[in-house]
Amino acid sequence: MAKEKWYSQGLKFTCTQCGNCCTGEPGYVWVTRDEVKRISEFLGRNDGWLDPAQIRRVGLSHSLTERPNGDCTFLARENGKAICTIYPVRPKQCRTWPFWDELLESRDAWNDTHKRICPGMNTGKHHEFVQIETVRRGTE
Question: What pLDDT is stored for residue 26 in this prediction?
């Protein structure tokens, strides 16, 4: 018998537009070639690529860049809110937040992230288990 996941009854999450998930310590926002192309088209570029200030090569992969303050290159701040300037075409890594495998590993991991990073976790809209799994897998 398969072990029931700790979040089988669902979880609450509503984005507060704090921007904490889009800033902080240096890291990686991995992008596929298709995601780069979609972002490029969204930005009105006809070459299917991004400006070197927006993307960097990491080994055989690519990641979006960060500003010196830790903000994602596509994060804007307006009237106290954090706005993703490529929201309709944001990468899978961004679309699946906060339903990442490492955050769903345990209730402690989820709650720790809520305390340290994301005030929208454990508040707002209730997401059913199936919705969470669909988002987590990026199949929405």
Answer: 86
